[in-house]
Specification:
By secondary structure, this protein is an alpha/beta fold. It is built from 7 helices and 9 strands. Helix 5 crosses helix 7. The longest helix has 14 residues. The model has no long low-confidence stretch (mean pLDDT 96). The structure holds S-adenosylmethionine.
Length: 208
């Protein structure tokens, strides 16, 4: 099953499934970007809109993109402080935004499904205005080395979604190669679980 089909199926239960990765991502995104304000935010892989309400608080304008129509349907059904623009698009193709038009690009739990990390960073750099920021929160590669990936239950069966491993150095190199400066790298554990590999990794890159 394609990644797109998998998320179309998962959409109905994505919000209600037990999912520590989803929940921790929501927490750290709010922690790391608290107090920031952006004129224009481009949210990549919006899913069911878990983080969109927060982005609507810190951004004057939010454009949220996903290639799963069912995920977008879930996201559009929620109410937000201001109305984000939801766009159905495959982010491995051209992005639905003008060059240098965005002040924050966000990726939450999407890059494991993107094979060409370098190309993705180049597109993020092109979308951002000078000084704009690229925020990333993803499943930590250390977890991927242990075989963890996005997985959901449907009709009593477990389904794994196609995922690519991106090493920590891949993110750093992709950022440098595209013309970003790395402003932050964070590693995040489940509460009281710091003796195990971190669950999430976060980055904040700045366009220079
Ligand atoms: C694990 S969900 C994360 C959703 C949301 N960002 C969150 O943190 O809850 C990954 C999302 O990325 C989307 N996605 C994956 N590959 C994509 C692509 N090539 N183009 C657009 N969306 C994509 C999926 O449809 C899915 O909604």
């Amino acid at each position: 099953m394609s990644v797109q089909q998998a998320y179309n199926t998962w959409a109905a239960t994505y919000n209600t499934d037990t999912n520590a990765t989803r929940d921790l991502d929501g927490q750290i995104t709010r922690t790391l970007l608290a107090g920031q304000h952006y004129h224009s935010i481009l949210e990549l892989g919006v899913g069911t809109g878990k983080n969109t309400s927060f982005f609507a608080q810190i951004g004057d304008r939010v454009v949220s993109v996903d290639f799963s129509s069912e995920m977008i349907k879930q996201a559009s059904a929620k109410s937000y402080g201001k109305t984000p623009l939801f766009i159905l698009a495959d982010l491995t193709n051209d992005w639905p935004c003008a060059e240098s038009s965005v002040n924050l690009v966000t990726c939450n739990l999407i890059l494991e499904h993107i094979a060409d990390l370098d190309g993705f960073f180049v597109k993020a750099h092109a979308a951002l205005a000078m000084g704009g920021q690229f925020f990333i929160s993803e499943l930590h590669p250390f977890k991927q080395y242990q075989g963890k990936k996005a997985v959901y239950q449907h009709q009593g069966e477990k389904h794994e979604i196609l995922a690519f491993v991106h090493h920590v150095s891949d993110f750093v190199k992709a950022g440098e190669g595209a013309g970003f400066t790395l402003r932050h790298l964070g590693e995040w554990w489940d509460e009281a679980d710091r003796q195990t590999p971190p669950r999430l990794i976060s980055f904040l890159f700045e366009k220079r």
